[in-house]
Amino acid sequence: MIVLALVAAGTQVLVESHVSEEHARFLTAAETILGRIPEGNSKMTFSFESWLFHYIAENDLVYLALAEAESGRRIPFTFLLELQRHFLEAFPEPPTQGTTPSFQPTLQTLLANFNDPSKDAVSNARSELAETKNIMSQNIEAIMSRGERIDLLMDRTDHLHSESLAFRKRAVGLRRQMWWKNAKVVGLAGFCVVLLLVILFGAFR
């Protein structure tokens, strides 16, 4: 949130606005900051308590704003560029302190607009992008999860197929073993019958 903004010529404040009276106390600190700004064009941020003073100095004019530290730098400096544009449109020639009060409503409107989250197009776009990324991530995770389940099912199918082949081989081997055992039993029984007949035939002869 931007709580105070001003335009100055050097250390002389041309126009100033603050969100509420409790923020008027920062005006003294702002004037101190103005005295520390070097000559020439520059752009910088000063820390003050839990707040940040941001300014743009260009062509002997200073555009300064005080914002919460949580606001970062993008929004305050975007505000300052917009303030600079409106101010130069209103005063193409170097203004004096007596001619700038008419800019007060414009400055107040700019503050109100930039402190309205719904009017921050970049934040809204980022929020929508983050939401889209989240949905895409969820979809990808779902697809990957389905893919893992398909892979698992295929692995299980392959495992069952391998077990089925092994079972068939064991069954064929077992049938062969049983056939040979049966053949041996039949052969042995046949031999015993023949031997018994030979013995009986010899006894009655």
From TrEMBL:
Residues 121-181 form the V-SNARE coiled-coil homology domain. It is a single-pass type IV membrane protein. It is found in: Endomembrane system. The lineage of its organism: Eukaryota, Fungi, Dikarya, Basidiomycota, Ustilaginomycotina. PANTHER family: SNARE PROTEINS, VESICLE-ASSOCIATED MEMBRANE PROTEIN 9. This is Synaptobrevin homolog YKT6. Keywords: Coiled coil, Membrane, Protein transport, Transmembrane, Transmembrane helix, Transport. GO terms for biological process: protein transport; vesicle-mediated transport.
